Fold each of these.
Amino acid sequence: MSAADHPAPAHEIRERFGFWKRSYAMLVKEFIQLKRDRVSFAMIVMLPVMQLLLFGYAINTTPHNLPSAVLLQEDSDLARSVLKALENTAYFRFIYEVHDVDDFDNLLKSGKVLFGVEIPRGFERAVRRGDRPALLVAADATDPVAASAALGSLGMVVQTALAHDLYIGNPPEMPFEIRAHARYNPAASSSLNIVPGLVGTILTMTMLIFTALSVTREVERGTMESLLSMPIKPVEVMFGKIVPYVLVGFLQAFLIIGIGVGLFGVPLLGNLFLLALLSTLFIATNLSIGYTISTVVQNQLQAMQMAMMFFLPSILLSGFMFPFAGMPVWAQYLGECLPLTHYLRIVRAIMLKGATMQNLRFDALALAILMLVAMTIAVTRFRRTLD
Amino acid sequence: MNGGNGIAIDVKGLTKSFGGREVVHDLSMQVKRGSIYGFLGPNGSGKTTTIRILCGLLTPDSGEGTCLGYDIRRDAEKIKRQVGYMTQRFSLYQDLSVRENLEFVARLYGLADARGAARDMIKRLGLSGREEQLAGELSGGWKQRLALGACTLPSPKLLLLDEPTAGVDPKARRDFWNEIHALAADGLTVLVSTHYMDEAERCHEIAYIAYGHLLAHGTVEEVIAKSALTTYTVTGEELNGLTAALTGKPGVDMVAPFGTSLHVSGRDVAALEASIAPWREKGGLHWHESSPSLEDVFIELMSRSRDNFQ
């Protein structure tokens, strides 16, 4: 073979739409590479499904037979009836009966029981007088899901159970007050928060890692040098590398929300289109941050470490794990700088409260700003030379 | 646009340091359009750095010049459009097929018909039927050929090839060089770095660079003539003993075995002749004066430059 045998047909070079053509070239290349990388592709699907099933089932299973203690300060028929009623709800299983407040406290503190019911002295008499005495139910809310589910349904269940026991028909009012006291974690978060929250955390994790590795991988495989010697601009490399993963993120969000609604009965009250739109914004923000990471680090290991460094505070300070409002002010400021914080508000508000764009404009704006900041850093950081 | 007067590369006083170590020192060179310019020198001599400066991947600390008529400092983007750079390491995507790699390059350069251009190149490379094979699965020789194909796809005016034939078998090397000559015949300028002497001899002009300094340049004949090296070729028995006896003697700059013969070279003819005189009378050894080979010249240059710069 030689040029003389097969003269090279001159292929015309067109300058128009150069930006789009070069970005497109990059995008097609990234897509093919993603398709070839079977393990990564499997992770895109398996990660959300596994996490959701594990978290979702662990969290959503209705708690029952929770080990409980009773502090009995009065041994009356009514007290026995109330205990029986509580046990009938299947939430509680009374394994200790104590008569001393200290013993009661220690059982809860040591974790031997998750619930304690205190029937105060003179309970029955007070009920008969119509004084509506308090029945104290203390919960170990370090396991907030278990605690809140049981506490939440307590009032109604006991009322129904007692109705058969004490009176004929439904009493117009509870003869006594149930005072629930969630110990150790007063702002127990509800389980419905978890599934929408998972959409955000899973997207953060996958999107960050995929793009954080993208530039360093080119450097390590030696393809960066020839890419730099070709007429492609940093911004075109960035778009080409980000766009395919927007679709990947979309697929993940679809999977998680689909499973959440279908399997766990999470409501989807708001506008699906709005959710898709703002999710895309959130995905692009995370991709930009991941891409920025990849322009800063030297190798793939560093990229992973830095992605984790960003991921952990995202989980801890965004309101995914702990209620945002419960954090100290400085931590809240820090949390406001994380895209996940804003997205959690968005996804929870749309799915659970049916919020509209009007309600969410601040968080959407915050996401857009974070994305632009990350993209600007990435494009300026991207080295066009090997200097 | 045209570097005028048929010069493709014209640079003066290029200097580049990394972390305080000067890798390229005051390097000036001119490469004629349509010629094959060989770049030789030991490992770490600054060949790759110079090539990277020429295609805009590195900015020189000082020095100036033009590449295809464009200023190497200001017009890096314009240079990139007309230069094909083949890196030392295989730089195509291993997880992309032959066709996908070529289409990627064609699109990046904005070829109107990327698929058509890739198809033509596959035919030209003789890779028809293997276009869907992953680039990473090709043999060394085919990888080099594909990389060269990718470089020439956007019809560049200048090719920069950084040790393109390292680790490639002789047949594939010869094919590769035939292709380079064919491209040069079409008017393409080629700057190629290599360690192989036979490849250097296939270049129109060569430059020898060591420790960042350009030590010699010109045609192969010119470089040999300029070396002012006198070489004797010795054949016979007991050559091993002769090597040991002559090494380090005044006037003997280099003693190197070549198969069944020994090359004894030096710049100072008188001193050299004096040192070898006792051995010339000895039976069993045949001495005759020969012109030094390119390798003799380079090894002598290399040992001299090591004394000077290290």
Note: DSSP finds eleven helices and 14 strands in chain B.
Amino acid sequence: MVPAMKRIRPALRTFGTFLRTPTLSRSIIALLALAILLLMAVNAATFVMIQRTATYNDTVDHSQQVRLAAKDMLMLLTEAETGQRGFMLTARTEYLGLHENAVAKLPGVVERMEQLAVGDQDQARRVAKVKGLYRERLKLMADTIELTRTGRIGEAVSLIRNGRGKFLMDQIRVELSAVDAVEAQRLTERTRQSERAQTVTVAVNALAAVLVLILAGISVWMVRRYVAEIEEAHFELDRVNAGLENEVRDRTAELTRANEEIQRFAYIVSHDLRAPLVNVMGYTSELEQVSKALEQQLTSLEATHPELVDAEALRSVREDAPEAVGFIRTSTAKMDRLINAILRLSREGRRALQPETLDMTAMVRAIADTVSHQVAETGGEITISDLPAMENDRLSIEQVFSNLIDNAVKYQQPGRPIHIEVSGRQEPDGWVSYAVRDNGRGVSPRDHERIFELFRRSGKQDTPGEGLGLAFVRNIVRRMGGVIDVESELGEGSTFYLKFPKRLIMLGDYQGDRL
Amino acid sequence: MSHSVKIVMVEDDHGHAKLIEKNIRRANIANDIVHFDHGDAALDYLFQEEVRRSGPLLILLDLNLPDMSGTDILERVKADERLRRAPVVVLTTTDDKGEIQRCYDLGCNVYITKPVDYEAFAGAIRQLGLFLSVMQAPEI
């Protein structure tokens, strides 16, 4: 019982909440319940009416039978009288037969009347009276017949003349017509009742019909209002959505503008940095020329007049100046490379993207082929599993994968055969992910972020590089709406995880400059 | 190139101007070179009546000027019925394809990117010199 209550209680609580909360469904359910109640009431009323009509029909039948019995009795008595008189007048026995026939039927009729009058004191009293009267009347008739048969016709006639018979007959008529009148009145009464009941039934039905119609009307009105509200809400939602879309578009446009500005900034900076560099390199060359000229001059002077030549000056032109020029050259060359890198980054950011469906397996295979020779030299291999295709910019994705694979080869652990493994899979919600795993020298966990930064490198600086590759890769991946991550242990190898939307999402209308 | 052709150089970087001049001279071009480091001054000079009438010109134009873009000067020059005959050599650090295209659209005759590598730079200027030496500048 207790667990059952436990199960029922939440249901009851829900029901209670439902009853207390004024909602449309509650109102409609209430209306429907009311309509059903009304229909049930109408049904009950109709049922009662039918019952009552049946009862009425029974009583009508009863009354009719009473009236019929009364008529029968009067008719039989009259017949008996007719037979008696005929016999007295003619002394023919066929009249006697008529009389006897009627007399024989009378008790049955009287008994029927008695039965019909059971439970009706008035009528029973009358029937009892009639019974007494008719018996006396029959006795009188039997006496006259007997006198007639025995030839004492005169006695018989005087017996009739005293008027007792007529009196009895009149009494019987009065009583029977009273019985008849009562029944006739009852019939009228019942007919009137029945008519009233019928009127009530019709009225109840009509009222119920009207109420049901009103309830239906209210329901329709409520549903219509509800639908209107839903439509309104829908409209509102659409409007809000449109607003949201606009907002997103505005924000995207803002971001695109900001991005464009940064790109342009990088571009301008790199060009403006280049201009002074032209001077630095140009005049360094000029100085070199000058120092060469001086050196030649001093050398020839040394040959002819060594005493005039200052050893310090000679060393300056021969060693210090070329060394200084050399350092300036290397530095400017490096600066030029860095500027070019920034320029490239900015250009990559401004390049128009052309999304197409990429067969990633084939693409990575082609990239792997370019380094297969180096890999084979160490006795290693590149494994490429089936990679999911995606829709993206070919050039960008090629750069990403070739950078990662090049890095895997470039930063190999010396003395260990290179093993590179490229895998990929479909992700839920329209993403694809790829992983490039190597067994190279790895990256220390504290450098995991640093390796993606421009001009930053990690680990032993024994291979040439400007710290650009992964910065480019991350830049491209981000521009493609993707994510790049690294998992690596120093000396154990690295795994680069890439995740892209299956279809490249172009942000806004801006698709880069055609550079 | 005939001696009368005057070279108008618009270049805000004096170092570049000097290097360009040096290398042009090294290519044995001895024409007059008038140097301006501002767009305004260059336009003022170019649009003087006497300059417009005084004979053939060749304009060496840098695009990154402090007061205006070189393309503005190019536009003005190419819109002038007399000056537009003067050949314009754009000499700048920008190798932006869009910019190059725009210069040619505006009527630039030659576009040279200044290489940072000095040897290449000197080489480019010397070649420009050779080009100038065979070029016939129209009378304006």
Note: The beta strands of chain B are 6-10, 33-36, 57-61, 88-92, 110-113.
Amino acid sequence: MDAFENLLYGFEIALQPEALLFVLIGVVAGTVIGMLPGLGPISALALMIPITYGMDPAIGIILMAGVYYGAIFGGSTSSILLNAPGVAGTVATSFDGYPLAKQGKAGKALAIAAYSSFIGGTVSIVGLMFIAPLLGRVAVSFGPSEYFALMVFGLTAVVSLSEKSLIKGLIAAVFGVMVSLMGMDLQTGTARYTFGNINLLDGIDFLIVALGVFALGEVFVLLKKRSGAAKQNSLGSLKLTKQEVREIAPPIGRSSILGFFTGVLPGAGATIGSFLGYTMEKNIAKDGNTFGKGNIKGVAAPEAANNAASGGSFVPLLTLGVPGSGTTAVLLGALLVMGITPGPLMLEDRPDVFWGVIASMYIGNIFLLILNLPLIPLISKILNVPRAMLLSLIIVFCMIGVYGLSFNPFDLMLVLIFGLIGFAMRMYNFPAAPLILAMILGAIMEENMRRALQISSGDWMIFVDKPISLTLLIMAALSLLIPLVIRVIKFINRKKA
Amino acid sequence: MRHLCKRFIYAAGVSGMSFALLTACGEPPDDPTEENNNEAEAESNADGNQSNDTNEVASDWEPENDVDYIAPADAGGGWDTLIRTTAQVIDEEDLAPVNFAPQNIPGSGGAIGWAEVAGHAGEPQPLFAASPPIILVPLTETSQYDHTDFTPVANLITDYSIVLVQPDSEFESVVDVFEAIEEDPQSVSVGGGSAAGSMDHISMAGAAAEFGVNAADVNYVPFSGGGEAMTNLLGGHVDVVITGVGESTGQVESGELRPIAYSSEEPIEVLADAGAETFIEQGIDYTFDIWRGIMGPPDMPQEAVQYYENMYADMMETSTWEGQVENLGWINNYQNSEEFSEFLDEQFELFEDVLTEIGLVE
């Protein structure tokens, strides 16, 4: 009951004309930034800090939160239409979204992305409202050993993402882990795989690899196939059949919840959430083998998960005062500048900020849905752009996005190199998804493994002594063994028959 | 409000006067380079420098172009906050005739940004935010430039290290922690918000060495940020955390975490109320400053340094600045260029000693 009273209070704040205006500005700006490949919510939020200065803190955070979840909402568009992920959290969306667009079902994919994003976002707000204070406690029970186990579990998805050849999938994954280890080691200060180049000391940003391997790799492939020039993709219908709705509803529900809890964990966030959602659905689905070839569930799951995770990431920020990701770290900085210290006391000291921002998220999500659906036909016009121009445009956008990450021209060369790697991988049928997955999870896995061993003074038992990490490791083992067992059983049955 | 207005008029008056001075006496050297791009301007300034050296008081210098104002890190961190906050105060209080344009040049713990600044030797800008890493990073040999390559402009603020434990921890003081480490180094894990050999590690290891424990025996676990370190303390994954006082405000005020020591010279009221004592109060003669200041390119013209050190001194008198300092939990710690420069050399010696003892520098 209490939560409802508080929510009403929050709506009082969020429904003020000023607040409504800034939610609208925030989500529109967020959507646009999200659509542009590479330009992510972090840089957008950093630019917002001076704008919010002098604003009422509740309004300021409402605006910034709007930019953040707006960007995750809008990020799916370029993933689907161009195979160029708009933000890191929408890489998984391109796995099935882009094939759908190629089949002339771009409209349907975009509509599913919008609905799933909306539901994922809304589920996470409900979660944020009711269980945020409790969840803060759960989130801290994840220490280095638990994170290590979670990442191991996540990496087992390489098997299901490997498509035809497991060996090629594993090679791609090992390459991904190697790339993720580049740069300065946090534990010893040693530079690894940097070839003495100062620009590599911080490692390679994940988006550079994603844009190179996916977007540029695709561009190069399209350039090679000259013949495809005449074929024009159509938007297709936006409408979903009853059958399709029935098909995507359960994945959206499951992925929303999974995404929310992933977002709650400090350090996990939208990107990992979307991958976990995607692989979970792929493993559960009866038609799992059509994932990656344009399965609508493959769009619904990551989109619901990443939006739910962006909501979930507010839990550690607002209840513990601890940022769980780069984006929420910028938000924390902005709050401090406005004179607000997020943390356990914020609920009592500044309920207007806490409940105001939660209520504004409901409104913002509705705005996003209303804005995005009618815009789909307009945005999809991009598909009618002549191929030569479109391909050049994708290259330009990738370059702008990558340059915007740290304004370092060196990154432009890197993205081209990864574009060529992506091209070669496609030519020789290496799947790109395991590379990306391993790159995201590899660094976190290694870092936490060594932290755990530092804490335990080198005793490996720390990974099995703790119940959460033990459970996760068992789940990882099962997810590797079960398909094998099934195969063996099938083999035996066939022999009998 | 009236107070503010007066300040504004004062500032406007001063800048107006100096502008008049500049136009009156500054004509000849400027003429040939009317188009002034940065390099040309720097040259003319360098010329001016030589002729002015004899007078010592060269208060007629003013920046003519917008100042490139660099945070050698991503948005959201300590350097970035300092750059954006000071740029805003300078703008609002009208302390300079030009804009301070914040820029992020992230990478390699600052080394990429420093390399950029080092390329502007002899020029009056860019200015950049600096803190202990400008000494630490070069010590571990990942930057070709170190603090002696740059011109210290002014030290602005400081934060202190704070040692935290869970509220029900057996450690009542930092002495308890060091005694436990002395007995069995493996038994105590100390989390911190920066890499091994960086600020938090040095701060704890330095205190341990002062107490008489082998600095290398501190079982330091690096996390990426004080926030992450504190989450791990909340979850009981590490026994002790060392981070900045500013970062821990939320947790200390709410009683989620208990402070047992901090590194300032004088007691701080909020922390004393929370039951913590300084290292000195606990009999360990040790202080550690997490200072943040502004530095400029190598061989910056003397009158530009003077101009900016005075500007920052004025900035710190304004009420806008006071408000920001309070919000962000900073502590004013102004040092002019000369004091800052001496301080940096002292810091270098301290860090080198501790890093050698830990075994990260030979």
Note: The mean pLDDT of chain A is 84.
